[in-house]
Amino acid sequence: MTTYAIGSVNGDYRALMQRLTTIGFDPLEDRLWFAGNLVNHGPESLQVLRYVKSLGKAAVVVLGKQELHLLSVALGWAIRQ
Known about the structure:
The structure is a single chain. The protein has three helices and three strands, in the order E-H-E-H-E-H. It is elongated and about 40 Å long. The longest helix is centred in the first third of the chain and has 11 residues, at 13-23. Helices cover 38% and strands 16% of the residues. Helix 2 links the parallel strand 2 and strand 3 (59-62). By secondary structure, it is α/β, with parallel strands linked by helices. It starts with a strand and ends in a 7-residue tail after the last helix. A three-stranded parallel β-sheet has the order 1-2-3, with no helix packed on it.
């Protein structure tokens, strides 16, 4: 089992998939640690979130400022930028 760390995906699903293909990530054998900022800047934030959720226990996520802002907006605690 190999553990990989990835930071600042920023909603770029295609780039994430390219990286995972390059490293030969196998969700049945390996684990991904996401070091925040999965969403926001790229056009495919929802696809990134759905993919990470689909990984189940193969993914560990540390919330970054983009995720914290998204949660704040969803809860009505902050305004959308």
